[in-house]
Amino acid sequence: MTNIFKQEKGFTLIELMIVVAIIGILAAIAIPQFSSYRVKAFNGTAEADMRNLMTAQEGAYADTQAYVSFADSGSDTAATNTITSLPGAKLSKGVKATAGTVTATDYTMASKHLNGDKTYTGTASTGITEAASSAGTALF
């Protein structure tokens, strides 16, 4: 006589529901952490670009004995943006920068990534300082 109730292999519905619940809990923890890491990376990009701008300013000063003024620069779409009036200066995608005041002995520049939450200000006399701003807003 054959057994009509064969033992089938597989997972029960409750086991599958427990696995889905565990994955949901892990995702709920990981997604906010991932978002904060992205904002930190955007801020780091803006700060690195500020350092590059400051190096370009000092190079321009060494060549011409004058700091260079430039207007609002940066694009949300280009991979890198070159500031034509400041040789050697490039901005990363999504970073905006501007030269505020430029005198014979000092300059003030600001940079911010569109998705970052900090604005970086660089001067010849004090270096780089940061200030909180809203993520997703432009510098200018």
Explained architecture:
This protein is α+β, with helices and mostly antiparallel strands and 140 residues long. The radius of gyration is 26 Å and the shape is rod-shaped. Helix content is 37%, strand content 24%. Strand 3 and strand 4 form a beta hairpin. A 4-stranded antiparallel beta sheet has the order 3-4-5-6, with helices on one face. A two-stranded antiparallel ribbon has the order 1-2. It contains 1 helix and 6 strands, in the order H-E-E-E-E-E-E.
Question: What does this entry show, briefly?
Answer:
37% of the residues lie in helices and 24% in strands.
Please name the defining characteristics of this protein.
single chain, 140 residues, alpha+beta, four-stranded antiparallel sheet, two-stranded antiparallel ribbon, 1 helix, 6 strands, rod-shaped
Strands side by side in the biggest sheet = 3-4-5-6
> What is the β-strand count?
6
Rounded to the nearest angstrom, the distance between the terminal CA atoms is 84 Å
Q: What is the multimeric organization of the chains shown?
A: single chain
Structural class computed from helices and strand pairing: alpha+beta
Q: What's the alpha carbon Rg, rounded to whole Å?
A: 26 Å
Number of helix segments?
1
Strand content: 15-25%
The main pleated sheet reads as: 4 strands, antiparallel
Task: Compute the average pLDDT.
Answer: 85
Low-confidence stretches: none
Q: What is the helical fraction, as a range of percent? A: 25-40%
Per the principal axes of the C-alpha atoms, what is the gross shape? rod-shaped
Instruction: Spell out the helices and strands N to C.
Output: HEEEEEE
